[in-house]
Amino acid sequence: MKIGVSGASGHLGRAVVSELLQRSDGHEVVAITRTPETVSGPTQGRFGDYNRPESLAEAYAGLDRLLIISTVDPEPGKRGAQNVAAIDAAVRALRAMTWRPPQPES
Q1: Structural domain contains residue 50
Q2: Is residue 13 part of a domain?
Q3: Alpha-carbon distances, residue 36 vs 9, 28, 45, 75 (angstroms)
Q4: Mean pLDDT of residues grouped by 10 in the chain (106 residues)?
Q5: Phi-psi category of 49—alpha, beta or left, where left has phi over 0 and alpha has psi -120 to 50?
Q6: Phi-psi region of 62 (alpha: psi -120 to 50; beta: other; left: phi over 0)
Q7: Are 29 and 15 in contact (CB under 8 A)?
């Protein structure tokens, strides 16, 4: 399973990524951040910026699970718009995925 954390470079995001890596059980962790070059270890870094909504759908592509951690932008009304953009991008990424029927158990 591929688990994405959007907002992974913030205080909470780094803590979540760290905890997921400790509990990964073979799952792949994807850190989505404006600075993917700072992501280290077994985590895959992907660029995603809440102020650039076009970057989010690509960053969210192929994920099985996604945690969206909102920003603490001080500009009035900006945080709400960023949240809407992140959720819209997640929906677009989900729709772009090909649905596969469940496989019978062996």
Answers
A1: yes
A2: yes
A3: 8, 16, 5, 24
A4: 92 93 87 92 92 90 91 78 85 69 67
A5: beta
A6: left
A7: no
